[in-house]
Amino acid sequence: MVKGYFLRIRHDEWVESVFWSYRYYTGLRRRLERGTYVFFLKKTEAGDSIVGYGVVGETLPYERLTEAEKELCVNRGWNRCIVFEHMTRLRRPIPLKGLPVDLGRARGRLLHGRRVEGEDLQRLLELLEAEKP
Q1: pTM score
Q2: What is the chain's pLDDT, residue by residue, as a tens digit (133 residues)?
Q3: What is the CATH number of domain 3-128?
């Protein structure tokens, strides 16, 4: 069964880095397997919005990172790197509040690591496909 997760990105420069490098460093303890969808969230004027998404290629534990990556992780409290096979950056951020996805009561930082699957995942993917550049 295909799964998806929301991951938040705090800073604009980190958004650029993620889409340029196809890498996302995290301390998230979820097991993100190959083929898992990740939807990147960034706070905008309209609230939390999806700025893009990707498909996980592999997750590298701390021990497999380069020395520069290890230093970055230690300084930020991260312990792994998600490497993506494919990534798509949207033309414009899409606010979560207008999407047909059940998020329960999760808002803000509580969305980080939130799983999306089944019909919610399919609806989200269909909607985002239409927003590709």
Answers
A1: 0.89
A2: 778 999 989 888 889 999 999 999 998 887 789 999 999 999 888 888 899 999 999 999 999 999 999 988 888 889 999 999 999 999 889 888 877 676 655 565 667 778 888 888 888 888 888 776 6
A3: 3.10.590.10
Phi, psi of 15 (to 5 degrees): -60, -50
The values of phi and psi at residue 62, to 5°, are -50, -40
Residue 95: HSE in the Cβ half-sphere, 13 Å Cα cutoff: 6
Distance from chain centroid for Cα 113: 8
Ranges of each domain in the chain: 3-128
Look at residues 39, 57, 47, 3 and name the one whose alpha carbon lies nearest to residue 129: 39
- Which residues, at least 6 apart from 30, have a Cβ–Cβ distance to it below 8 Å? 5, 113, 115
Query: Please, what's the b/e burial string for 88-103 (b: 16 or more CB within 10 A of its CB; e: otherwise)?
Result: bbbeebbebeebebeb
Q: How far is CA 79 from the centre of its chain?
A: 16
**3-class SS of residue 109:** helix
CB atoms near residue 2 (< 10 Å): 13
